[in-house]
Amino acid sequence: MELTDLASAPLATGAWQPGDPPGRRQFAELYVDRPLALEAGGTLGPVTVAFETWGTPSPTGDNAVLVAHALTGDSHVAGAAESGHPTPGWWDPLIGPGRPLDTNRWWVVCPNVLGGCQGTTGPASVGPDGRRYGPHFPTITVRDQVEVEAALADHLGIGVWAAVIGGSMGGMRVLEWAVGQPERLARAVVLACGAAASAEQIALCAVQAEAIRADPGWCGGDYYDRPAGEGPHRGLGLARRIGHVSYRSEGELAARFGRLPQGDEEPLGGGRYAVESYLDHHAAKLIGRFDANSYLVLSRAMDHHDVGRGRGGLAAALGGVTADTTVIGIDSDRLYPLRLQAELVALLAARPPLQVVHSSVGHDGFLLEMAQIGPVIRAALAR
Hints:
This protein is 32% helix and 14% strand. By secondary structure, the protein is of the alpha/beta class. It has 2 domains: 3-10 and 201-300, Rna Polymerase Sigma Factor, Chain: A (Orthogonal Bundle), CATH 1.10.1740.110; 26-197 and 305-382, Rossmann fold (3-Layer(aba) Sandwich).
């Protein structure tokens, strides 16, 4: 089945647009008077940040917790699917009264990342010249994303985060907070990432990027005026399929799907295997809620991830971390294997124990293994 058959004439971009239902989003306008100076050169401004909050700030402002989302996540970390939010919160079991991120105690803040497509300035946004940035959106890094999160903290009156927590690309931002803004966080919880992007991770991103750029509907990145059904859907869907295989484990795919056909389809007669249908499903979901240019921009920012760059190397950078740091890895993760988290704990001055989540699902365990991750987060916040 063609990827384009899986969605009914999707729009050229799945980005949230002004005028769409805002849902729980709040918005901050940053860098209005002075643009953000980017690590790779150039500037960007003004910058709109979409964010959501849960709980109530304390009178002394000491209970704010920043949650950082992964590549295709967004600010809707908790709550039901509703107008403006087509999917439930991606960490919903962890946030709320009595939960590990107890909103009776903590004020939880989750922004959509710089370069994203769910309300924060990114390639699908309209720039100061009245045109969408598209392929002209500047090169950004994880450090730039953290600078914007720091500006949001200033806007919200948060001097010091009680904790910064995130997995995968979100974990990269946690590390950048801990290394680059040490005076602004008390605790760091890092899940399923490493101190720097590996060669294999960069290679996987390169293949996904080429899948998007090879789609005739990409139009060099200027596809926003294309009619419904004529955007870079196949390329983005292929990128998602490639990525999703790396997010799960071989054992889980074997146990769930094996060589089973999809329903009544006959693979020898041109039908699909069940695992192919599974990948088609995730591709179709993504093209309805994400933007191809954002996928490229954020993936490239992940390629550039290296907390030791310009800081004397990884050992020097991580050796200076002062936040109470918890590192969590997943034993079946083949995209960010446990050796990367072991490297982190070995280089941190405090040498915290590595918290290992036992899971069959692979990298996506940081989104799925709530029964194991929740207690670790609760314990980290209790210290």
